[in-house]
């Protein structure tokens, strides 16, 4: 029975569950509350009822039915919508989480389960000493990618606890403020720029104790490759549909971990989601560079990105360089840093930065009166029906963002046979250095799809100049752009790494070198070559990179990865409005590509620089985008939630606003405005 005074005061009973570790204390409490009681008052009332003397500052209410946190402590229960049937759990906001890093190492750390994922990732990166946290996010492995593992690992046990690096006592993980000095551009270098080994000042970033230096080196240095058997057990995508599964599990950056069903001690993947690696600096970014290198290495070993045999051997040689250098590296060489090596690393870095067009206009040195041009004899290859190709030499002139070709040099003053506008086209290298084949495949957007044109160059220098011009023109830039010469040098250095000859010395070396070649290439090439053949070929390629320092080898590996045609593409299966069949949508840092699911051929490309606006119809889960020249597209996503693609587009546009001149604090509000959506 309820007394008349209690009945008249509009009180009601609310059952609260407390998530604490004291076994002898009750976990459920029934409180008399009113609708005008604020959340903070409810907390106070509950703590008084629990009667346990401990720090409750990290606790908050989790509303189980609504899957949301009650973090606005000044709001009343009425305003929150809490009624007598609400199941509220009083639990900690920071919980233990296992993260698998790009180098396949697992770390265990305390993470905020109540903050938005964008903020949680920022805190995680501070713990791991990774700058530019906006480039990373958290990924749930989809069921499809786990099936193969489950079949193989039925009898195997869970990984031993010693394989997990425990960082739960680090300053940020314990709730202490991070040291802002780590993000200062004028700070003392925390890593040796040549060897990549952590300097002593880095120790403060990790937990106290004797294992501190070991912990930091696990993140900053590469470790022996896994066995071919282990590699064979891992998920390897065979088709574009398989590759789409890899990108289905990105968490929503605008919601918390708990809201997305992540539980304490769950395992997630920490990965670089956005392929725009800004302001890489070997003095401060040893962990970041190593993790980018590792993500690239595993993408190549697991064939998540396609490359030619020649390119695979270059990647193997760069990994072998790291392997060989690590064996020969002594404490004396770690202490001595050569200025020339540092200069080489910094030169390599200048080629690694990827910026969205329109991101930083101050770097574009356009001289209207004297825009450079290229003019030379090239072979034009046009694919014809019945698999025949017509190859003919013409005089080509490259001016602005267009290529014109003429019958010969003398007729160049007249009208061209054809003028090709390369803005928005796809540029694909078609190179085999050993066979002296230097081709450029151009896929030029036309009304009914893509027009294929092949250009053949005579030598490396000619190829590098024309290829660089085509790449810039596809982004709407001319050869007057300041990035033209670095692009030429990047292409030449990659060709140089591919250019090797067999010497008598390397022929006799394979037996003397302790190397498992199967660890450096994807399973496809392990099946193609015998072990001795593979070792010999890797050592041939290794001659061109044998003088590189460890960090430079990593940077060159990342650079070579960025040169691959499929670099930076995240795939999704979509259905375009008005279409009767499914297509694949490739999302890159500067464009969207519609790809034929059966053949893998690009159908159309749309560049972000031409995009006017985009929006999402949340009721039918449809993404609609408007481009220049009255081009409209709309599609629904079949392999993932449309919010993931929406966040990708907004995220890349957000990253294009970054500048070295600005303060390094991120405009988090702008990120959520561009990526959050209005569900």
Automatic annotation (TrEMBL):
It comes from the Eukaryota. It holds the Pfam family FERM_M. GO terms for molecular function: integrin binding. One of its GO terms (biological process) is integrin-mediated signaling pathway. Residues 379-475 form the PH domain. Keywords: Cell adhesion, Cell junction, Cell projection. GO terms for cellular component: cell projection; focal adhesion. Belongs to the kindlin family. This is FERM1 protein.
């Amino acid at each position: 029975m309820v007394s008349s005074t209690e009945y008249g005061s509009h009180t009601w009973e609310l059952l609260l569950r407390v998530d604490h570790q004291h076994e002898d204390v009750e976990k459920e409490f029934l409180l008399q509350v009113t609708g005008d009681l604020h959340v903070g008052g409810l907390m106070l009332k509950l703590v008084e009822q629990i009667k346990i003397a401990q720090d409750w500052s990290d606790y908050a209410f989790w509303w189980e039915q609504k899957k949301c946190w009650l973090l606005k402590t000044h709001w009343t229960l009425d305003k929150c919508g809490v009624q007598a049937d609400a199941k509220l759990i009083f639990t900690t906001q920071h919980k233990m989480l296992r993260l698998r890093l790009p180098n396949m190492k697992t770390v265990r750390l305390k993470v905020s389960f109540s903050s938005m994922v964008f903020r949680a990732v920022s805190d995680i990166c501070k713990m791991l000493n990774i700058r530019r946290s906006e480039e990373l996010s958290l990924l749930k492995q989809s069921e499809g990618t786990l099936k193969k593992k489950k079949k193989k690992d039925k009898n195997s046990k869970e990984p031993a606890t010693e394989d997990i690096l425990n960082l739960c006592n680090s300053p940020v993980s314990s709730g202490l403020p991070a040291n802002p000095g780590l993000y200062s551009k004028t700070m003392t270098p925390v890593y040796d720029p040549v060897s990549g080994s952590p300097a002593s000042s880095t120790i403060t970033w990790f937990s106290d104790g004797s294992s501190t230096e070991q912990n930091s080196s696990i993140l900053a240095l590469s470790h022996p490759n896994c066995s071919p058997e282990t590699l064979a057990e891992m998920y390897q995508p065979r088709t574009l549909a398989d590759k789409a599964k890899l990108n289905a599990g990105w968490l929503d950056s605008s919601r918390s971990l708990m809201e997305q069903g992540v539980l304490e001690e769950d395992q997630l993947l920490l990965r670089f989601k956005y392929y725009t690696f800004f302001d890489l600096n070997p003095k401060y970014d040893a962990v970041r560079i190593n993790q980018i290198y590792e993500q690239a290495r595993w993408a190549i070993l697991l064939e998540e990105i396609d490359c030619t045999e020649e390119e695979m051997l270059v990647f193997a040689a760069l990994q072998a360089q790291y392997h060989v250098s690590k064996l020969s590296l002594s404490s004396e060489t770690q202490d001595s840093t050569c200025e020339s090596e540092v200069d080489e690393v910094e030169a390599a870095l200048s080629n690694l930065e990827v910026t969205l067009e329109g991101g930083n206009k101050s770097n574009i040195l356009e001289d209207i009166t004297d825009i450079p041009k290229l003019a030379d004899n090239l072979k034009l290859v046009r694919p014809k029906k019945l698999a025949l190709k017509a190859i003919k030499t013409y005089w080509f002139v490259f001016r602005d963002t267009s290529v014109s070709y003429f019958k010969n040099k003398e007729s160049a003053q007249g009208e061209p046979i054809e003028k090709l506008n390369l803005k928005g086209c796809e540029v694909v290298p078609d190179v085999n250095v050993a066979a002296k084949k230097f081709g450029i495949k151009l896929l030029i957007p036309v009304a009914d799809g893509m027009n294929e044109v092949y250009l053949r160059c005579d030598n490396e220098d000619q190829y590098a100049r024309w290829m660089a011009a085509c790449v810039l023109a596809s982004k709407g830039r001319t050869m007057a752009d300041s990035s033209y010469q670095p692009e030429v040098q990047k292409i030449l250095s990659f060709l140089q790494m591919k250019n090797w000859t067999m010497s008598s010395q390397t022929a006799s070396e394979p037996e003397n070198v302790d190397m498992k070649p199967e660890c450096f290439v994807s399973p496809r090439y392990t099946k193609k070559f015998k072990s001795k053949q593979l070792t010999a070929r890797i050592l041939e390629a290794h001659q061109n990179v044998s003088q590189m320092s460890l960090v430079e080898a990593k940077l060159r590996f990342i650079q070579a990865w960025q040169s691959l045609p499929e670099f930076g593409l995240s795939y999704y299966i979509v259905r375009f409005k008005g279409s009767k069949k499914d297509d694949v949508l490739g999302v890159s840092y500067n464009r969207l590509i519609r790809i034929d699911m059966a053949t893998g051929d690009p159908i159309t490309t749309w560049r972000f620089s031409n995009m006017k606006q985009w929006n999402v119809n949340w009721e039918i889960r449809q993404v609609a985008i408007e481009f220049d020249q009255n081009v409209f597209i709309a599609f629904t996503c079949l392999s993932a939630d449309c919010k993931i693609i929406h966040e990708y587009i907004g995220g890349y546009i957000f990253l294009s606003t970054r500048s070295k001149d600005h303060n390094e604090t991120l405009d988090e509000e702008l990120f959520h405005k561009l990526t959050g959506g209005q569900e």
